[in-house]
Amino acid sequence: MAEALASFFTGKVAAISRQFTDATCSSPTSCSAARYPSTEGVAFSSFAPLTENETLALLTRSRPTTCPLDPIPSDLLQTIAPAIIPAITHTINASLTSGVFPTAFKQAQVTPLLKKPSLNPAQVDNYRPVSLLPFLSKTLERAALNQVSGFLTQNDLLDQNQSVFKKGHSTETALLSVTEALKTARAAGQSSVLILLDLSAAFDTVNHDFLLTILSNMGISDNALSWFRSYLTGRSFRVSWQGRLSPAHSLPTGVPQGSVLGPLLFSIYTTSLGRVIRSHVFSYHCFADDTQLYLSFSPDDHSISARISQCLSDISAWMNEHHLQLNLSKTELLVIPAKPSIQHNFAITIDSLSLSPTKVARNLGVMIDD
């Protein structure tokens, strides 16, 4: 069963990725998927080495996690950290200064989790993978995250409507931003639509060459860029099932699930999506791979169906170019009329598929109705 699950998880991502081989460009330098406005004069070429005090702070402030790949439990490691902090600091600095992410830190152990208790546990497609990474691996990631996120924020390189890893931002602030805008529109006598995009295996199909080109265009270069290349490549996972481990399976695409840097790298990868959305005069807000589109309009505006269809069609094309798959069957459309007495009958078609409005939508874990 362990190997069956591992093969299923690998095959699902491979099947999605194969769709992009011929349909999209093959060169990251010639493909608009990898273009980003030039950051001339702005550069992040190397990581600064950590002091022992900085390493100790990173280690002790991190939430202890349980991973079978850890040689000793993370809570015990935190307890004895003062005694071994010179060795840990050396390991982290050796990676940051050499531009090489340790091979031992690139392995993940996956625990399959049944999607719903009512599902048949004998069917592999009823499981989703939960990826566990070594505690020290994530400590090293945090060291890199602190420095690169500071560079990106200082130079205003991240989408202003992306909340992940921004100080004072969270899922709550992302949700509040959207719901308040919808309430304000209704108070002004306008109807609104809220569209919650769903991507199939979003983190898993990220194209490494495209991502590295985007990082380079943002000003990340030399040793720092080499470190990210090493971090992304040569990864593998094993599935653990009832005390048995599957053989290792390679991960040729994607940003690591369960990682510290994964959400930031995905938000960097999708930064140019905002331009597509804004070109259709839609508002939006993102939290990592959760994207909320919304549009307020006069109740007698009959062009909304066509505008939604065109916007989503262009988003789908952008996704394909970036080797991401928009899952229309799970994308939700919520119509919020200006008044309960107003009815909007939208006919939305994208890529020959229809999208029907729903009465209730789950947005960042919160149920929203009209």
Automatic annotation (TrEMBL):
CDD domains: RT_nLTR_like. Coiled coil: none annotated. Residues 94-368 form the Reverse transcriptase domain. This is Reverse transcriptase domain-containing protein. It comes from Astyanax mexicanus (Blind cave fish).
